[in-house]
Specification:
GO terms for molecular function: imidazolonepropionase activity. By secondary structure, the chain is of the alpha/beta class. The chain has 16 helices and 19 strands.
Length: about 425
């Protein structure tokens, strides 16, 4: 980069996780290579990284340039800004009343069949004004950023009418325009069949394809399309039709695949070359292989299986062994995963999925960035990339998942600007 001055120099970094040295998503053994630097520094100019590496080398590279501000990391851990590639950020209401049902052993799909679950949130979202949805989502987005997330994917899917889906997506766009965090929007009108279409799923599929998708595209409100491919929700054939129509309109595709039962959603993700397949608790080895061959990124959601008290979790170790790039996410939503903390996901990724701290941070930075089509601009600390980074009150990477239940974040820098300092919002 040719720069006239350095706006911010972060120095005296004890352990600097850069994620450098790999052009695409990391898979297999490369997920363990986080390209860490001891005694590091990051120089930032015009919202981008000008130089990164050992402090002496960085200072040599920027020698002669005026440094406007310096920030002493005090020997602490620094990573790229965390990326949350699967959330349901914009919604009305909450579903704490379902906790008792879960404790009584009522399943997620049974709650949905009784008109609860997603359909309960649909009612609350439809009743909420755009301003109410914005304020609620902004509060959650602030919490995400306080915990280190600098880029967040946000799905619709709690409107299930043309206008209410557009309402959710307009709120996500407004958040992207007004909040420091970057929002990547996904249209998910195929999240459930709404009550008014009960017994008429074909009519609802046609509504999604012929009315919702074209309107979302025309208004430029989403980059991706997602479908909940699951027993009692959308079949593989219905999912294929919706996603194929979305691809023909220019959307990238994602899929909620094989969360509860082995429906073949992972195979469909491979067939359609989706950018990502999400959940995957019940996915088969065949599904993993089809995904690997097609370059699909696996997005595992350990907070969801934890909260649903499931006895099985996504087989992340198998995926890694097979060469699948694995990402992680909160799946933040009002029912199955009401948490905004990617640091909780780090711990669950280690304890329940068997991933190492290095694999976890890879999953939450560069692989998560690729899972939302942003791998060229975020997810690693490299010259020319967006200056998104996090300073933790932690001495090492392993300390983050090891010491769980608290927020380790001290400072968050987004596009070169400090947005969290001493654990407090300052934007």
């Amino acid at each position: 980069m040719n720069v006239q001055q350095i706006d911010l120099l972060v120095y005296n970094i004890g352990s600097l996780v850069t994620m450098q040295g790999h052009p695409g998503p990391r898979a297999g053994e490369s997920m363990s290579n986080v390209a860490a630097v001891k005694n590091g520094a990051v120089a930032i100019a015009d919202g981008k990284i000008a130089a990164v590496g050992p402090e002496k080398e960085v200072r040599d590279k920027i020698s002669g340039l005026t440094i406007i501000e310096e920030l002493d990391a005090q020997g602490r851990l620094v990573t790229p800004g965390l990326v949350d590639p699967h959330t349901h950020l914009v919604h009305g209401g909450s579903r704490e009343h379902e906790l008792t049902l879960k404790l009584q052993g009522v399943s997620y799909l049974d709650i949905l069949a009784q008109g609860g679950g997603i359909l309960s949130t649909v009612r609350a979202t439809r009743q909420s004004t755009e301003e109410e949805l914005y304020q609620k989502a902004r509060t959650s987005l602030d919490i995400m950023m306080l915990h280190g997330a600098t880029t967040v994917e946000a799905k619709s899917g709690y409107g299930l009418t043309v206008e209410d889906e557009l309402k959710q997506l307009r709120v996500a766009k407004q958040l992207n325009d007004t909040h420091p965090a970057d929002i990547v929007s996904t249209f998910m009108g195929a999240h459930a069949v709404p009550t008014e279409y009960k017994g008429r799923p074909e009519d609802y599929v046609k509504l999604v394809i012929h009315e919702m998708l074209p309107e979302v595209k025309q208004q430029g409100l989403a980059e991706f399309c997602d479908v909940f491919c699951e027993h009692g929700v959308f079949t593989v054939d219905e999912s294929r039709r919706i996603l194929t129509a979305a691809q023909e309109m220019g959307f990238g595709c994602k899929i909620h695949a094989d969360e509860i039962e082995p429906m073949g959603g992972a195979q469909l993700a491979g067939e359609l070359k989706c950018i990502s397949a999400e959940h995957l608790l019940a996915a088969t080895d065949e599904g993993f292989e089809r995904m690997r061959e097609a370059g699909v990124i696996a997005v595992c959601l350990p907070a969801t299986s934890f909260n649903l008290r499931l006895q099985k979790h996504a087989r992340a170790r198998k995926m890694i062994e097979m060469g699948l790039p694995v990402s992680l996410s909160t799946d933040y939503n009002p029912g199955s995963s009401p948490t905004e903390s990617l640091q909780l996901v780090m711990t669950l990724g280690c304890l329940n999925l068997g991933m190492t701290p290095e694999e976890v941070i890879t999953a939450l930075t560069i692989n998560a960035a690729h899972a939302i089509g942003r791998g060229d601009t975020i997810g690693s600390l490299e010259a020319g990339k967006q200056a998104d980074l996090v300073i933790y009150n932690a001495p090492s990477l392993a300390y983050l998942p090891y010491h769980f239940g608290i927020n380790h974040v001290d400072t968050v820098i987004k596009k070169g600007k400090t947005v969290v300092s001493n654990g407090q919002l300052v934007y």
